[in-house]
Specification:
Phage integrase family protein; 125 residues; DNA binding; 6 helices; DNA_brk_join_enz; mainly alpha
């Protein structure tokens, strides 16, 4: 799946730091082929990841934001930006187009106004 350039750059920088950690932990580093690890190459504990995320979100003033909230926001932003629902469905791994459309597409006043304006244009001869 294609990733945003900014994500690719962040992952490349992360890999550079990880290789430095690997050299520093020579003799104790456990190679697992994982992208995200502890300082010695072992898998991250999910609860520790969640705790760290909560601290960083709070520091950024994003109280109440969860990892699932980020997933939902990303999907909603993609749809609002005009990304085809099928693309977003595949990105999220949903089995059904309808699930993606029903859960993540939101219609606000601006979209309602745009629809009315388009209908107005279509009705003009």
């Amino acid at each position: 799946m294609p990733l945003p350039r900014s994500t690719v750059q962040a992952l490349q920088a992360h890999r550079t730091r990880q290789l430095e950690e690997q050299r520093a932990a020579a003799g104790v580093w456990q190679e697992n082929g994982l992208v995200f690890t502890t300082e010695i190459g072992t898998p991250l504990e999910p609860r520790n990841v969640l705790r760290r995320f909560e601290v960083l979100a709070a520091r950024a003033g994003l109280r109440g934001v969860t990892l699932h909230t980020l997933r939902h926001s990303a999907a909603s932003f993609l749809l609002a930006a005009g990304t085809h629902t099928k693309v977003v469905q595949e990105h999220l791994g949903h089995s059904s187009y309808a699930i993606t459309a029903d859960i993540y597409s939101h219609v606000g006043p601006a979209q309602q106004r745009e629809a009315a304006d388009r209908l107005d244009q279509a009705l003009r001869w």
